[in-house]
Amino acid sequence: MFWHNFKYSLKVLFKSKALIFWTFAFPILLGIFFNIAFSDIENSEKLDIIDIAIVKSDEFNKNIIFKEAFEGLSKGNDKLFDITYTNLNKAQKLLEDDKITGYLVFDDDINIVVSSSGINETILKYVVNEISSNETMINTLIKKDINNEIKKGNYNINYEKIYADAYKLVSKDTAKINNISNKNLSYTMIEYYTLIAMTCLYGGLLSMYIVNLKLANMNSVGKRTAISPIHRGKMLVSSLLASYVVQLTCLAILFIFTIFVLKVDYGNNLPLIMLLALVGSFAGLSLGVIVATLIKTNENAKTGILIAITMLGCFLSGMMGITMKYIVDTNVPLVNMINPASMITDGFYALYYYSTLDRFIFDIVSLLVFSFVIILISYFGLRRQRYDSI
Amino acid sequence: MKNVIEVKNLTKEYKKLKAVDDLSFEVKEGEILGLLGPNGSGKSTTINCILSLLNFQNGSIKIFGKVMKPDSYDLKRQIGVVFQEVAVFEELTVYDNVDYFCGLYISDKKTREKYVNEALELVGLLDYKKFYPKQLSGGLLRRLNIACGTSHKPKLIFLDEPTVAVDPQSRNNILEGIKKLRDNGASIVYTTHYMEEVEILCDRIIILDKGKILASGTASDLKELSDIDEKITVEIEKIDEAILNQISNLNNIDDYTFEMNILTVKYKKGKNNLGGLINFLKKNNVTYNKIFSERPTLNDVFLSLTGKGLRD
Known about the structure:
The structure holds two protein chains of two kinds. By secondary structure, chain A is mostly helical. Chain A has helices spanning 2-15, 17-45, 58-62, 64-73, 88-96, 119-151, 159-180, 187-212, 220-226, 232-261, 270-294, 299-316, 322-331, 333-337, 340-353, 358-382; strands at 50-55, 81-86, 102-106, 110-114. Chain A has a four-stranded mixed β-sheet with strand order 2-1-3-4. In chain A, a hairpin with a 3-residue loop joins strand 3 and strand 4 (110-114). In chain A, helix 2 (17-45) runs antiparallel to helix 8 (187-212), helix 8 runs parallel beside helix 11 (270-294) and helix 8 runs antiparallel to helix 12 (299-316). By secondary structure, chain B is α/β, with parallel strands linked by helices. Chain B is 33% helix and 29% strand. Chain B has helices spanning 43-50, 73-76, 94-103, 109-122, 138-150, 168-183, 195-201, 219-224, 241-246, 273-283, 298-306; strands spanning 3-14, 17-28, 32-36, 58-63, 66-67, 79-82, 156-160, 187-192, 204-209, 212-217, 230-236, 253-259, 262-267, 288-294.
């Protein structure tokens, strides 16, 4: 009976034109739209290398923190600056001739000289400020460590080690900046992740449709199924499995289409992204099941409620603007802890913002727990059910 | 004969409206019981309560001697239901629809294939196996509905108004199919508001109105409850008012009407009423085109019991 219901549930789902459109065609159409609309933004988003000059001086040579930081930022494929080390006159001339964005003069203080305001000038100023604050932090840490050593009565201080430790600690922040600027986490990629998350949650439409067909208060087919000798749990799991297979087919097509047709580069994390999509889809399906079983209204109203819940979840999880996720996480963290959309997006971000998989695994486990709890509640709501009216 | 269904003091209320009011009846093994009543009389609600689809406030329901509950899977296995609404999947073919519902009861593939084909043959849909429901006419859809509900060869079948909005050919086909199901040993509960159908099909009839049993028995038993024994209808072109008034003086007359050139005379009891009326018309030189006599119908019984017709 389990596989019999599974086989026919698959047939019904694959032959339902409206469902096929929303779960198969719609995400692909959106993907095409993103590809057309955001490819220009993506190109314009890539930063040009900024030409700057640094006026050579003893102060600059003594400032090891700045010296090493600028050397680091002007090396490699991802370099931010092309630096000309010169004297003051030549630097002024280069600026006048528009050959550089600005130049830096090191004396008692650090002076940034620019001739106009723009993105490159802002970046230069931002970087100098960042390094300055790092320098202050390093100096503070060094002073603190030296004081600690003196307090302990240790006057044989290893200044080089203290400096190295402080430098290592502070320079972690710079590494974070590098990671965030990873080429895989572009604006367009965020949109594709949103698309995958949305497709996962749209799976709820599939499970809701097929479960509605088993409910006596929803339609005549449901009445006929309800009087059959099939255990409700078996029927629920079998129908859910069928919708999951359809959902996974839909996701597979979406991945194949975005990778091979739209040439989306998911980077090295593709297997983990797929794992998250698999688990996220399960959460989406469970959401459809609970709306179908526990909310007693007609099919259209249930569809509206499911879409509203999905959209609200997406909105609160930051899919339509990352600031919202920050606001919810800060003020009402419980909301996003039980919001499957948030668990999915959080999983995607975790892959990029964290060097370990702890947060990602936490999101996966949260999604699984959420799904099983929801399905269990649905089952108990469905079990031994008689209706007041049908 | 054993009781396959025992309903005792069943009461079902929708808010303050009593849809079924202290209903008690039995269905015997191998019989076709007709539940006859106008729309809203409680026929479908009674069936839904028996099937454990609806909550009810009071009463007890036993099927095959066991209390019927939502998880009485052993009982459900022996029951087939044809609902008033067509209950099929739009996305599946005729064959797949019957196969799906049959498969919820019969797991063996070969047996199922045999049963599905027999069910399709019973309702005359063998030539439509690969059609989708939207390609079928209303009558053919109803037949498919019956095949889906009965293909697993249940011992007890509920047929809830299976012939609503069906063309005469399909209706005859459906009624023939139901007779065959009974001949194959099934007990049947048949609800309808078509009195002709219960007269043709049912061994016993329960007349329901406002959730209560008004009368029950065989068709002949019920007709005994009617105020009249015979109804004679005559098509007349012209009749004088004075002659018309004399009709009430004829023997055994209960009532008469003359509307749209049709004279209807109802008799309480008595013999040779038709001969008496013909003699009266000849004697008064009244010419008539058609004349026929009929026994009271179940509608007349319902009219006598409630003062309204079954389809009012």
